[in-house]
Design a protein that fits this description.
heterodimer, A: about 120 residues, mainly beta, 7-stranded mixed β-sheet, 11 strands, globular, B: about 110 residues, 6-stranded mixed β-sheet, 5-stranded antiparallel β-sheet, about 0% helix
Amino acid sequence: DVKVTQSSRYLVKRTGEKVFLECVQDMDHENMFWYRQDPGLGLRLIYFSYDVKMKEKGDIPEGYSVSREKKERFSLILESASTNQTSMYLCASSLWSTGATNTEAFFGQGTRLTVV
Amino acid sequence: GQNIDQPTEMTATEGAIVQINCTYQTSGFNGLFWYQQHAGEAPTFLSYNVLDGLEEKGRFSSFLSRSKGYSYLLLKELQMKDSASYLCAVRDYSSGGSYIPTFGRGTSLIVHP
């Protein structure tokens, strides 16, 4: 079974704190993604990575950074947490391929972050 | 950029058939996914279409028309456990040459007895 594991299910942090969200996958996937999910807005892409040390900005990268030092691990960093970053954060991974059918994303269980 | 549109909410009766539509506009289409997400859980993969036509998987089918920028997910013989959010996602080329799935806002399906 493909497994994508996020380090925390629930997290409460204070405004201004530096926050690390960790994600690990065990399927040797090239692609890894960080999304946030908010009611009425759906899943929005923050950052993604297609290889070690490679990253690209998604639709809403402001206030976030990422790190991918190893293929299996993709970290999301909130440099200075703010209340508008309270959200559900979902990590996902997938194979990198131009046309194979088994390129769906596999998601972690999510981290519900509350910034107070 | 992309624009993906799907209805916010639908209701249906147990045992019935429901069709959830998704329309999209994209510059570099490379496939469309449907995911199911139960409340409080992670999305799970249902289907993938890259060519026009219907893909059938048990009670679930997904259809794609690339020329119309249109897809639908068809759920037959609805069960109470099908109450969930259904997410349409379009895979597109990023500026860096990678393939990124972009999600619609999801359709919340409520199945009642």
